[in-house]
Amino acid sequence: FKAYLRELPEPLLTRHLMPYFEAALTAENSMVDAADAQAKAAEHPAGEYHHPLPGLPSSPRSGIALRKPPSLSTIAVPTLVPRAASESLLSTVKALIACLPRENRDLLRTVTELIAATARSAKETKMPLSNLLLVFCPGLAMSPPLLRMFCEAEGIWDGMPKAMPGSHGLEVENRDDDDDNVIDLRTPSPEDSTGR
């Protein structure tokens, strides 16, 4: 199955749409990181020094100190901190999924449902979601956070929104004047924000 996914002529998210999926996820992470930085700044006002590990000596003791090398398991396993996706990210991803060819969309949904079902049985399979992401991401040509969002997000497979405001800096709009579903993905221009 992994060989089949790896040998597809084009990635499931398509070469054309992959940058938009990654851009939406990057914008979400940037917003969360900025909010976290503001929260930390509010906790520790400027000029106030905070020791991260109180009680530790400030200088090494005399003599040679040996340090235990890190184990390979702590080096090789990336930190994949689950975080609930915002509504704007889910709306953007939902619109992007609707742009995928039907075959890609159906296979992506099948693969993510298989991964999610296997992860729910982690006690029996010994494969939690973090391990499954490491196994499937290279064959699917997508990042672990993006695949995690596909597996955990609710409602992204329910169809396409009619219109939505610019999410994550992308203007996403469904045009009903064509027979095909066309979504306009572009950065809003300054004229659009001033109402001209």
Describe what this molecule looks like in 3D.
The chain has about 200 residues and is mostly helical. Helix content is about 50%, strand content about 5%. Strands 1-2 form a two-stranded antiparallel sheet. β1 and β2 form a beta hairpin. The longest helix has 26 residues. It is globular and about 55 Å long. The termini are far apart.
What series of H and E elements makes up the topology? Answer: HHHHHHHHEEH
What spatial order of strands do you see in the largest sheet? Answer: 1-2
Percent of residues in helical segments?
40-55%
Rg measurement, Å: 22 Å
Please tell me the overall pLDDT. Answer: 74
Question: Notable features of this structure?
Answer:
196 residues; mainly alpha; two-stranded antiparallel sheet; 9 helices; 50% helix; 5% strand; globular
How are the secondary structure elements laid out?
Elements lengths: L1 H5 L11 H26 L28 H5 L10 H13 L2 H19 L1 H4 L3 H12 L3 H9 L18 E5 L6 E5 L3 H5 L2
Helix pairs in contact: 2-4, 5-8
